[in-house]
């Protein structure tokens, strides 16, 4: 059952933050805190809250752990290489602990929602002071105060389906592009995915809280609102509302801004949702719909709850209603039990759909998931060959998809220095395509019209013709 953290509980944490700030003030110079976030955009959003709470405790924020008084690793559990990086970085911090025994070292996030990870940290990383899970994020002030007063290792990994804690302070990464979580957790239990086990079950924020945060962000100069959830398409089911309704409410807000969202699940990509996006002028024309495989048999093994034909039906309706939409997806290569024939179905699917781009991965087993115990007879070498073949096929498709923009004039949000040249500016189109273009830095944060002159496999280059969209 979802727990909504009460206003009284949040007030207690603010008191702990004030007490910690007072102890830090007694030391003289303000403490420095370093937060390193691994993984997805949801983790980045959590990192903004961690930084906000640390700032409330009087901490300055540092880009490096060197000389920091507090070091926190906000972790990801989706892939093994992310966990390996965390352990490597944690190991290096024992030298920092020797140099400064008073430094507070913490690990939080999805990794530490797994019992075997917590035990490894407990046993092999004695210099780590704090270990707290995704459901204990809001208790950071209490944990820091405890370290300042008692200096005992603390492990706080609450169970349950998850919590919603409103009103946490934020230190945003950007005022221009703002992330707004709309829901947490996942109910899908895809057989390869650890997320439901580490993030809990689906729980949606109240629409009025989301709208209030969106209004505040717009008033603060935000030009892009990124709505976050493990599966935003299922937003609001337990509240008696839905994602299309939320999109319409935010789209109706005053101001010049763009609405993006991630992540989406194809099984919940309804015609009503596609119709809503078609009718809401502020919602991006970009659909990231992770298909994972083009084989219905493999999709069944993955517990994705749609078939190849279902997915193609969604794509066809998107193309019918929003002809200029961009389509991107995720593909897992070498899922346990996948055959060469299954893989060839994936190749045929990406040719049939014509994705603008793909995020591709070789299957990585995650302890605790059903797929981790499935027979997996295909060798790593053969999976690598399939992976390279997939990249080659998508490379050919992607080049053609980007070429179609040449000669068009697109509305672009100017975000900063160019990707292809530091002498250019960069931004993204409503299709979430990167565009570099000439222009003065005073344009950063504004919408401009850019005529596309050249296409690369991953970006476009163009020229401002006039500020039609400013």
Describe the structure in your own words:
- 37% of the residues lie in helices and 21% in strands.
- It has 470 residues and is α/β, with parallel strands linked by helices.
- The strands form 6 sheets. It has a 6-stranded parallel sheet, sandwiched between helices. The chain has a 5-stranded mixed beta barrel with strand order 17-18-19-21-20. A 3-stranded parallel sheet has the order 9-12-13.
- Strand 5 (104-109), helix 4 (115-124) and strand 6 (130-132) form a beta-alpha-beta unit.
- The longest helix is centred in the C-terminal third of the chain and has 24 residues, at 380-403.
- The model has no long low-confidence stretch (mean pLDDT 94).
Gap from first CA to last CA: 47 Å
* Quaternary organisation: single chain
Strand order, largest beta sheet: 3-2-4-5-6-7
Structural class: alpha/beta
Number of strands: 21
CATH top level assignment of the largest domain: Alpha Beta
Question: What overall form do the CA principal axes indicate?
Answer: globular
CATH architecture descriptor text of the largest domain: 3-Layer(aba) Sandwich
Number of domains: 4
Instruction: Note poorly predicted spans.
Output: none
> Helix fraction?
25-40%
Task: Report the total helices.
Answer: 13
Largest sheet: 6 strands, parallel
Sheet-strand content, in percent, reads 15-25%
Mean of all residue-level pLDDT scores: 94
Radius of gyration: 23 Å
Name the CATH homologous superfamily of the largest domain.
Methylthiotransferase, N-terminal domain
CATH fold-level topology of the largest domain: Rossmann fold
